[in-house]
Each structure stands twice: as C-alpha cells, then as structure tokens.
Specification:
The chain is α+β, with helices and mostly antiparallel strands. The protein has helices at 4-9, 57-73, 88-91; strands at 17-20, 24-28, 36-42, 81-84, 100-104. The structure holds adenosine monophosphate and zinc ion.
C-alpha cells in the first residue's frame, strides 16, 4: 500500500497543508484530538526514528523549528503545547512515515505512558 503521507506530500491525496518547504510538509491531522493538531513530516520517506541517519540531524532540528513557528502562528505558543513522535508498535505509531504531532489549544489531559 502506498504511503499516505508521501501521497499528501506529492499532492496526490488531499490534506489541509499549512506549510511546506524543501525539507518538510505540515498539515492538519484528519482526526484531531485537540483544537490544534498538526502533523509535521519530512518530505523524504523515513519510516520512523529508528530509520534516521546521523546526517538527518539538521532535518530533525528543522522539524522542531517549524513546530515552533506553527505554534506561534496558531496562537498556542504562550499557553503551551505537546510535541509527540510515536515510534513503533509500543509507541503507538500507526503511519510508518516519520511525523511529529503538534497538539494544543487545550490543556493536555491524558498522561503519557
Ligand atoms: P501515529 O499514531 O503517531 O502514527 O499518528 C498518525 C496520525 O496520522 C493520526 O493522528 C491520524 O489521525 C493521522 N492521519 C492518518 N492518515 C491521515 C491523512 N490522510 N491525513 C491527515 N492525517 C492523517
Ligand atoms: Zn511516506
């Protein structure tokens, strides 16, 4: 089955894209768990954190600076938010194209773990 996030990045599948550049694409999660729920994904198909190379450190740093910019743009930077990168089965990863969740707009209720 083709990767759903690659299809979004290649504009072959619909998504509400908020930001894109040479390295990453950010779009609204289709099943938001909070008023703000954005996914930030590398444009390159990387399965998970386990599949990162040492050379990807700048790319991963870029995910964070894009998250910071989007949090500000969405007006949740002052109150705070949660960034999540689920990895593998125990991590709850369901889409195997590395992604960072940016979740906010309400106080986070569920504990992690
Ligand atoms: P994870 O469980 O960390 O792998 O998160 C996958 C996330 O991708 C979930 O929050 C889904 O709601 C979201 N998702 C899956 N397919 C799509 C899609 N086509 N467009 C937007 N979000 C999606
Ligand atoms: Zn992919």
């Amino acid at each position: 089955m083709p990767c759903p996030f690659c299809k979004i990045i290649q504009r072959e599948a619909p998504a509400k894209i908020l930001y894109r550049d040479q390295q990453v694409t950010a779009f609204h999660d289709s099943h938001p768990v909070a008023p703000v729920h954005i996914l930030i994904v590398p444009n390159r198909h990387i399965l998970s954190v386990n599949d990162l190379e040492d050379e990807d450190e700048l790319l991963i740093g870029h995910l964070f600076t894009v998250a910071r910019a989007l949090a500000r743009q969405e007006g949740i930077d002052k109150n705070g938010y949660r960034l999540i990168v689920n990895t593998g089965a125990h991590g709850g990863q369901t889409v195997f194209h590395l992604h960072m969740h940016l979740i906010g707009g309400q106080r986070m209720r569920h504990p992690i773990g």
